User: Which sequence fits this backbone?
């Protein structure tokens, strides 16, 4: 058996079983958007992600500055999903020797723009030789705490039957932007959503302050990421297709596929939150980012998407998996 047979998430479970030993200071370990551990009176957050040429971006289509922005933004999204504050980044560049200096300069300019936008300091990193260009960011941050010094954390395992489900922003734009890029379109809001995602960091922090128990960032597609949240929380979910927030640009560009792109396209880097409806409504009123209630957690398992008549829609819960065979 090879890794393609188990897929990315099956492999993660397998590796967690090998190394995921309990440790008294570790608050959140393998399986959530980021790790959290106690250090003195503080609770530190760490996450890491890689962008690889030909896998996560297409040289010649994605501008290098956008690659740099995105390399940091996808990590900020993980911290946002924990309700935390990003602080310091370490950047590893894997470069073929033929890589142009101008490309690396542009990549770092985009990365620095994202760092300034989210209050992150690039504190170091590494440079190595490789056959394909890749950039890996490790992002360190900290959790907010309450008056008693307890961490205010959003987790993937906090949903309960009866909790409402809400998503930030609009869904499907990034996947649509990738298709437009491949078709020759270089500008517009959908292309910008693909190249420069803007994770709603302040929304995640407000959610943590309000005591919401559960969140995940939407990176691999709404249905797939909701499935992760449901499995860890031991619940099922019902989504109402008519309530999913779709941009007018998406509806115009892909009128027949807008819903499918929103459900399974991936790379939105928005937040999916679960908690009491009244708390989510209060969060929406605070205006940190647009927030739409789209369904609820239910007893049982699995995710169902219902049309306006309450009938189930046949939407395959596919999304991004690095290792799954086509």
Assistant:
């Amino acid at each position: 058996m090879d890794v393609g047979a188990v897929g990315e998430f099956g492999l993660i479970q397998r590796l967690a079983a090998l190394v995921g030993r309990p440790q008294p200071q570790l608050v959140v370990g393998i399986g959530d958007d980021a790790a959290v551990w106690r250090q003195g009176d503080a609770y530190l957050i760490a996450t890491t992600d890689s962008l690889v040429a030909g896998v996560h971006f297409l040289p010649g289509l994605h501008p290098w500055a956008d690659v740099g922005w995105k390399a940091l933004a996808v990590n900020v999204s993980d911290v946002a999903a924990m309700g935390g504050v990003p602080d310091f980044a370490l950047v590893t560049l894997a470069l073929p020797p033929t890589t142009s200096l101008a490309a690396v300069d542009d990549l770092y300019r985009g990365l620095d723009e994202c760092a300034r936008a989210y209050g992150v300091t690039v504190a170091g990193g590494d440079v190595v030789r490789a056959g394909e260009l890749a950039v890996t960011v490790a992002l360190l941050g900290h959790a907010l705490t309450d008056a008693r010094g307890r961490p205010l954390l959003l987790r993937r395992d906090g949903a309960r039957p009866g909790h409402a489900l809400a998503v930030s922003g609009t869904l499907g734009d990034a996947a649509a932007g990738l298709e437009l890029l491949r078709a020759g379109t270089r500008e517009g809001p959908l292309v910008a959503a693909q190249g420069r995602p803007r994770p709603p960091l302040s929304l995640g922090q407000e959610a943590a302050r309000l005591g919401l128990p559960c969140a995940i960032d939407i990176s691999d597609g709404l249905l797939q990421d909701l499935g992760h949240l449901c499995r860890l929380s031991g619940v099922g979910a019902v989504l109402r297709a008519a309530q999913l927030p779709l941009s007018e640009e998406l509806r115009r560009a892909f009128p027949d596929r807008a819903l499918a792109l929103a459900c399974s396209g991936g790379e939105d880097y928005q937040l999916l939150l679960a908690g009491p409806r009244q708390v989510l409504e209060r969060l929406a009123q605070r205006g940190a980012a647009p927030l739409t209630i789209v369904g609820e957690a239910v007893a049982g398992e699995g995710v169902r998407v219902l049309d306006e008549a309450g009938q189930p829609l046949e939407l395959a819960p596919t999304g991004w998996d690095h290792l799954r065979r086509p």
About this structure: The longest helix spans residues 64-82.
